[in-house]
Design goal:
This protein has two domains: about 10-110, no CATH class; about 120-190, no CATH class. The protein is about 15% helix and about 35% strand. The chain has two helices and ten strands; from the N terminus they run E-E-E-H-E-E-H-E-E-E-E-E. The strands form two sheets. It has a five-stranded mixed barrel with strand order 1-2-3-5-4. The protein is elongated and about 65 Å long.
Length: about 200
Amino acid sequence: MIQAASAPCVVAHSYGIIMHHRLAWWLVEFPELDAAPVRARKLSGKLTAGMTDWLRAETGDPGLAADVAALNPESRCWSGEFSTVPTMGGADLFDIDAHPWGSEPGELETRLARTMIDATLRPVPSGFVSVFTALPPENQPVLAIRLSGYTCATFDLLTARHMPTYRPRSPWRDISGDAVSDSGSDIIGWCAAADWIRPT
């Protein structure tokens, strides 16, 4: 295991997904395969000195950049085991200190990782239930919330249904049955709205 050649610091080990999302590199941690993620750590985008030395020796490229992208140049999203350390002088940022192995993440893991990043950037507002806390009854229309893709609004609200039996890999569907991800970000929270949303 490669560790930083600097002052002693806490090294965190985890299985997760590294992803470039919302203009930054993130490590989304999962407790195990096929489980819900537990947190998203924003990365500095850098490797520790020890990790950089090891990667340069492995690749035979002494000029290889000490960047996260150098770990997997052909991808902006991959899974594996990682070790991180807090970035020196970087508030709430982390450097990659070790990466024993990596692989392509599944579609569900990737979607959950994106959702966790969005929920970390903009926590679910009061009155809504986080999708990582609970999910609505299957097929029941609810008021769902997600990050807006526009500068004029932080969140986007829509009527949606959670339909895991119908579409297990993309269970959040809009009122017409299309995947909500076809029209924007993934759902981060929801609230019951039976008094507002009634069948005709």
